[in-house]
Amino acid sequence: MKALSLKQPYAELILQGKKTIELRTWNTHFRGKFLIHASKSVDHEAMKRFGFSKLPTGFIIGKAELVDVKRYANEEEHKADKDKHLASSTWGNYGFILKNPERMSPIACKGALNFWEFDPSFI
Question: Within a domain: residue 88?
């Protein structure tokens, strides 16, 4: 199954249903369910801003469905979705529209860039 690594707290915010668009600088043709991997890299400023002190890192923590990709043509469009992606335009102008987040029991594994294939032998 495909997986996507995200910094904390963004992985957690997706699972809580508070973040429904994931910003990236690259587009994808992939659509469907994927695993959410909380990378070992943490956005400490965002952790404080969203009220988290500690979250799991280095684990697959859930899954979601990528249903579409929105391309932001300008700053106005980007700002209109601020409540959905919770980030600035510096994070990218492609918005991965997510649905059906589901928390899972954590599975320790290394992540990778872009979408990657989860292989249980990575564990």
Answer: yes
**Sequence-distant (≥ 6) Cβ neighbours of residue 63 within 8 angstroms:** 1, 33, 34, 35, 36, 101, 102, 104
Write out pLDDT tens, residues 79-107.
999 999 998 888 899 999 999 999 999 99
Cβ count within 10 A of residue 47: 17
For 69, list phi and psi in degrees, rounded to 5.
-125, 130
Spans of the chain below 70 pLDDT: 121-123
Of 15, 37, 12, 33, the closest CA to residue 101 belongs to 15
Residue 30 within any structural domain of the chain: yes
Q: Is residue 123 part of a domain?
A: no
* H or E segment to which residue 23 belongs: strand 21-24
Q: Which residue has the tokens 């199954």?
A: 1
Return the pLDDT at 122: 52
